[in-house]
Structures are given as structure tokens and as C-alpha cells.
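Bump. Still looking for Na+/H+ antiporter subunit D C-alpha cells.
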Amino acid sequence: MPLSSLVCVPVLLPLLAAGVKLAIGGRLRGLQSLISLVTLGLSLAVSVVLLVAADTSGPLVTELGGWAAPVGICLVADRLSTLVLVVSSAVTLCVMAYSVANSYDEQEHDAPMAIFHPAFLVMVAGVADAFLSGDLFNLFVAFELLLSGSYVLLTFGGTEARIRAGATYTLIALASSMLFLIALAITYGATGTLSMAQLAERFATLPEQVKVLVELTLLLAFAIKAAIFPMSAWLPDSYPTAPAPATAVFAGLLTKVGVYSIIRLEALLFPGGPVSTLLMWVALATMLTGVLGAVAQTDMKRMLSFTLVSHIGYMVFGVGLSTVAGLAGAVFYVVHHITVQTSLFLVVGMVERRTGTTSVTRLGGLMRAAPLIAVLFFVPAMNLSGIPPMSGFLGKLMLVQAGLAEGGWLPVTLVAAGLVTSLLTLYAVAKVWGKAFWRGPRADRMGRVVESEERTGEDPVVTTTALPAALPLSVAALVTLGLSFTVLAGPLSALAQRAAAELMAREPYISAVLGRHP
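Sorry for the wait, here they are.
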């Protein structure tokens, strides 16, 4: 069996498992969990095989329905798509293990496992389809597939706050999808195709004004999905209300699908176009506005949501440079950020389950009360801040070197903004660490425990709830994965360089899709 036949497995397997789980319904809960874990484990194994094959033999292509490209829709596994697919598969496996250990089906009686797990698997299938899609219309379908699952996860439990956040998220997603459809209509009207490989050839013959119109429309649609400034205001109010597993995978993966689409768009369809300068300005604004919002927060979830926005700016910076070094830095940072951001949201989920709050004004003494949780927060928080020699520092270093090598006042300004953002990120997470974990609660004159010198009007957190033993283990596995990127920084950065070079060359991708069908 040719390896190219495996390209569709990460998409079809979760969809098949979701259908089986819906057929089972609320019965056999142990079997429900087993199906989810085995499905995601097999998807991870297949993704690793595809990554090795794509790195050694070039892009792998499978044609859906037996129709050859560019007439038919194809899935393409190259270095970039398989690298992010491997990381996303590992992350979703850890998040599913977390959700099984956390027994959300028992806590949320109005939204049982029979709903959560199939929706999660549908979302995973959509993410994989987006990474592997070789056709713009199929990319649109992939977005709708992952969004259909995310709508369910975001409103999981049906609380007022979640319904309100879900309504905002749904409206933003529908607006983005409408823009995407408009861009597809313009693209097809101008070129007669939606195959990305064929578009890479046909865009070269279009008038510059038409190319810029298509590029800006597509970028706007993807920028909303990636929460790039100024289209990022929806994220801090939407993500924190969802259950911890959903929030974690939203923060770690869904925004990265938008970033991945921008990388693919700019490298394959519009290399070195006039919009690159605009992307650097947007990256600058995204970094600074996001991190300033993070510094001002007193809630752990909202702080992490704002840091998520700010660090998207690093990736856009790498794309805007339009160089192999810049793209390599962006790819490395995407891989790093998926694991670190997911880890932090899962840890905050454990804090919330143990204490009932994520407000740093009501927390204190967690370093003594829950040392394992404290360590699991501290390690990815330092990684996010870019403390040497962690992968966050290495990813920022790659981007700094790429910016300085490019030269010019705007790239150098972005380098400076990146350093400032890193320092302010460190300040934001250190503030959370100091208030929630390091400081101890003190007693007032009445003997009551308080957390700060100034009373907030809220009841202090005194009691805690024990956590399932397997819960921190799933988070520890994800934190270890993030640390492994530091140990394997050499091979990983080299792979990112090869992926970026392949992206900028374009010909390997185009030939793999169209070359065998002249």
C-alpha cells in the first residue's frame, strides 16, 4: 500500500470514531473513552509516518473520489503540514486524556460524554483537513467542520456565560466564513480554479490589482480566525468561559489553523508580494496590544488569552519577512506555541477545579498547597516568556536573527517590539505566579484567611478540591513534550528550515500535485 493512501487517515479516522460514538450514545462510558484515546493515538502514529515520508521523499498526495487535481480535491502532506499535524495530534491526545481524567461527563450533567467526545473528534478532523487541504474550497469545508465541533464545545454545559460567549464566537466565525466565500468567488472568477497548486501558477498572469484584492480578502478571513489585531477583540471574551479541555485546544490549535493558512497563502500563492509590509505592521500591533492587555488582567484565563493574541504577532512577523529564515522562525514558533499555550490553559483548568476560581486576587499559597500544579504552571510559563534555553527563547531568537538579517527600520523595529513583548509576557506570568502560587494567605483580626492587603469584596478561597491522580499526569506529558523541543531544538529547527525552503521553492508542492497529471 503506498504511503500516499495514509494521507486521508488523520481526517477520516476521527470522523468515523465520532459516528461510532454517536451510535453508542451515553452507554458504555469506558468504551467511549477508549475509542477516543485509541483514535487519537492512531492518528498520531500515522502523522509521524507521514512526516518521515514527506521529509525524506517529498510531498505525498492523495486524490479524493478518484478525481485527479486540479479537477478533483486532493490532500497534500508536505513538511509543513505533517509537522503541525504531528504536534496537533500529540496535543489533542493529551487534551483528551485530560478530559477523560477530569470526567467532564459527570460534572456537566446537561452535556454528557456522548456530546463532548464526538464534537471533539469532529473538531480534530477539521483541523487535520485544514492542514492537509490542497484546495481552497476544501480548506473552507475544513474550517466549517472544525467550527461545527467548536460551537458545541464552547457552549458545553449550556450556562449563561457560555451561551453568550458562544453567540459572539459564532457570529465572528460566520462573518469570517462569509469573507472566505467571497474571496473564493473572486478567485474562481479570476482564475477558473481553486486548486492551490494551479493557483500558484495562474496568479502570476493576473493583473496586480486583482491579486492584491484576492490576497487581502483571504488574509482578512484568516486574520479573524487567527485573532490578529484588530480582529482579535472577540477572543479574550470567548475562550475563558469554555471547559478547560475545550479552552486549551481552542487556544493551542484553532488560532494556529488561521496562522497556518496565512503561511500557506503567502508562501505558495503570493510570495514576496506588496502585502508583506502590511503584515509586519499588523504583527507589531498584535504583539503590543495583546501583551499590554495581558499585563492589565487579574484573571488567569484572560491573561493567557491576551498573551495568546500577542504571541500570534511573532508568527505573523516571520511570515511578513518573506524569507526562508523568517518562515522557519514562524514554523518553529507555531510548533512551540501550540504545546505551551495548551499546557498553560490545562493547568489553569486544574487550578479552577481545585479552588473554584482563576482570579489572582482570590488565590494564594498554591505553591505549598499544590506543588505539582505550581511546577506544571511555572515551566510552560517560563517557556512562553522566552527564558533561555527553552524553545520559546529559541523561536524568538530565530525570528530576531531573521529580522536583523533582513535589515531596514521596520524589521528592526519589530525585533525591538518582540523583545519588549517577551519582557512584558514575563512580567504578566510572574505577577500571576507571585500572587496565586508564591505568596501565602494571611489571617485578618477575625482569623479569616485573606489573599491581599486590599480586600476585594469577594470571599477568599479557603477550601480546595482533590484532583484525580491521572489529571496532572496528562498535563505533565504535554509539558514534557514542550520541553522536548528544547532538547531536540537542533533537529526541529533544521526541519523547520527545510519546510520553509520547500515552501519558498513552491515547485516541489506544485509538481507533487500537478506533475503526475500533465
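Strands lie at 60-63, 74-77, 442-443, 449-450.

Edit: fixed formatting.
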